[in-house]
Amino acid sequence: MHRTLATLLLATVCASSWAQDWFTVYGDPLQPEADLIEIRLPSPSQADHLAVEVRVSRSATRVAYGGGKYRSHHSMAVIDCENQAGWYTQMKFYQLPAWKGPMTMSRSFELGSAPVAFKDIPGEAQRLVRAACRLRK
User: Fold this and answer.
1) How far is CA 64 from CA 48, 49, 56, 95, 136, in A?
2) Which H or E run includes 60?
3) Among 13, 15, 36, 132, who pairs with 27 as Cys (CB 3.0-4.6 Å)?
4) Which residues have CB under 8 Å from 111's CB, separation 6+?
5) What distance in Å separates the CA atoms of residue 17 and residue 65, rounded to the nearest whole number?
6) Reduced to 3 states, what is the DSSP secondary structure of residue 66?
7) Residues near 49 by beta carbon (within 8 Å), at least 6 away in sequence
8) Cβ distance 86 to 132 under 8 Å?
9) CA–CA separation, 25 vs 129, rounded Å?
């Protein structure tokens, strides 16, 4: 738990310097005003599930799970490779793109209650799941 929190805090401060550690699933990291989806496998997976850090920066303001507006989020997700599904477990939201500025809200979810999804970017949730499962191997 402390390792994940420390990783999230450090990523907030050093997001641009860590770009090489992230795998881009969608978009271009050099265009911070455009839609971007990146993943990183922060630790060894547990049992059937894979823990994945997810960074999402959107081209326009969005409405978060549970309400509230954001432009980017840095989250933890659990990926079930066997069933090709993923769920957010923690999300930290920012008003600015590319995880800049102060965190404006944070949410935690029970496993299975907040599916990994990207409204208006069809197919990218499935692409994220496939990419995470391939990176695991």
Assistant:
1) 28, 24, 12, 11, 28
2) strand 49-63
3) 36
4) 78, 87, 89
5) 28
6) coil
7) 78, 79, 80
8) yes
9) 10
Dihedral (Cα; 98, 104, 109, 114), 10-degree rounding: -50
Q: What is the pLDDT of residue 120?
A: 85
Higher pLDDT, 66 or 2: 66
3 state DSSP class of 69: strand
- pLDDT tens by residue, 3-50: 433 333 334 334 443 445 899 999 999 998 999 999 998 666 556 788
Would you state the structure tokens that stand for residue 8, as one six-digit string?
């999230």
Which whole-number Å values give the CA distances from 112 to 68, 103, 108, 137, in the listed order?
Answer: 21, 24, 12, 24
Strands of the 23-26 sheet, one edge to the other: 23-26, 36-40, 49-63, 69-80, 85-94, 103-108
- pLDDT, tens digit, for every residue of 55-109? 999 999 999 988 999 999 999 999 999 999 999 999 999 999 999 999 999 999 9
